[in-house]
Amino acid sequence: MTPEDWFELLRTQLPATAATPGDEEVDALLDLARVAAHTSERWSAPVSTFVVGVALADLDPGERTQRIRALADHLEALANG
Fold it and tell me: What is the pLDDT of residue 17?
């Protein structure tokens, strides 16, 4: 199953109001997941993206993407001392 097919299937199981991330937001979320997985245990990656997604859900997609990217950069810098 392709990622597109997977997300289409996922959307059919969620309320119609569920957000669909754009390509830039997906990239930012993957950066956050990468930082979490490489600086902690692997399971922290999906949980981190969930926590951030819930916390920033009310923002418009562009602002949310910028905040996720900035957070990932900041956390990576903190983790690397």
Answer: 83
Whether 48 and 38 have beta carbons less than 8 Å apart is answered as: no
The span from the CA of 61 to the CA of 66, in Å, is 9
**Which residues, other chains included, contact 44 with Cβ-Cβ below 8 Å and sequence gap of 6+?**
36, 37
Phi, psi dihedrals of residue 3, rounded to the nearest 5°: -60, -40
Residue 60 has pLDDT above 90, yes or no: yes
Q: What is the largest CA-CA distance in the chain?
A: 43
Angle, helices 23-39/61-79, rounded to nearest 10 degrees:
20
Task: Please answer whether residues 35 and 75 qualify as being in contact, where contact means their C-beta atoms are separated by less than 8 angstroms.
Answer: yes
